[in-house]
Specification:
The chain has 167 residues and is of the alpha/beta class. It has 6 helices and 5 strands; from the N terminus they run H-E-E-H-E-H-E-H-H-E-H. Strands 1-3-2-4-5 form a 5-stranded mixed sheet, with helices on both faces.
């Protein structure tokens, strides 16, 4: 990341402050949820009984620090086996696109997410965290789905049918 990127990031944080939000649910669950840039969807899910089936729910706004944070959470909480990705992918950053590219192709020697078309897809995450994500986490692609009921039903199905482990 260049000094210009860091300065622009600081300006964005000051001008458009977006709270770091995540919500804890059932500590015994193996499911986490990422609502991409759909913050209203995140708060709706956080208040829903679907959280009885979810370990953690959060959002993803950037293709670098945001993904670094997800990887850190997944590595720290190794009981999580499934990440349901839903909601709308934000314009510009394409963080969801980069998350799926990372899962499929990993990173190069410079920490760049292979195959990503995002503007700054460089991770600072440790190699062990990337490998854990790529090999031990099953991604469920519900990108574009913002219907809380449909997402909740799918999570309940995953939780109830023991479909949690990566293929």
């Amino acid at each position: 990341m260049t000094i210009t990127d860091e300065i622009l990031g600081e300006i964005c944080r000051l001008v458009l402050p977006i709270p770091e939000e995540s919500y804890s649910g059932n500590p015994d669950s193996e499911i986490a949820v990422c609502t991409l840039s759909s913050i209203d969807l995140l708060t709706d899910l956080a208040g829903d009984d679907v959280m009885h089936h979810v370990f953690l729910a959060g959002r993803l706004l950037s293709e670098n620090r945001g993904i670094d944070a997800i990887l850190s959470n997944l590595y720290t909480n190794q009981n999580i086996r499934v990440l349901v990705v839903c909601g709308s992918d934000g314009r510009g950053h394409g963080a969801g696109h980069s998350l799926f590219r990372l899962h499929r192709y990993g990173v190069d020697e410079d920490g760049r997410i292979r195959g990503s078309h995002s503007p700054n897809p460089y991770l600072a995450t440790a190699v062990e965290e990337v490998e854990h994500f790529c090999h031990n986490i099953r991604l469920v692609d519900m990108t574009g789905v913002t219907d809380r009921t449909a997402i909740g039903d799918h999570i309940r199905m995953l939780s109830g049918n023991n479909c949690l482990h990566p293929a």
